[in-house]
Fold:
Amino acid sequence: MTRAKVGERVGVLRGMMKDGKSVGVFGFGERLKDEIPCKGVYFVGVDLHERGVPVPTLLLDNGDKVYGCECWWGSESHVKDVIKNHDIVECSIEDYRKENIESMKKYGIEP
Structure:
């Protein structure tokens, strides 16, 4: 994906859905500066908040913050081009985070 600089518009994707045809989209918004994620943001089973690891931060138009480690993201124009021939499924970052925690528990990783 074409990365966006701080202050530029971005598209934020969950990725391909299980049906292999549709794309999960968190939304569109603005690239903010790198920040340490809020508590409960995990990447490969690691709580990045506790570790103090700053990551790209994306503020969606609906007010949700999504961190670069949780999604596929890039410039708004590039993302729109990538998804134009796919069915779109609107996704919630809060639901996605809950799913990640449940998945970790399933595999014996205690969040």
Notes: The beta strands are 9-16, 22-35, 42-43, 46-47, 55-60, 65-67, 72-75, 87-90. Helices lie at 48-51, 76-83, 93-106. The longest helix spans residues 93-106. DSSP finds three helices and eight strands in the chain.
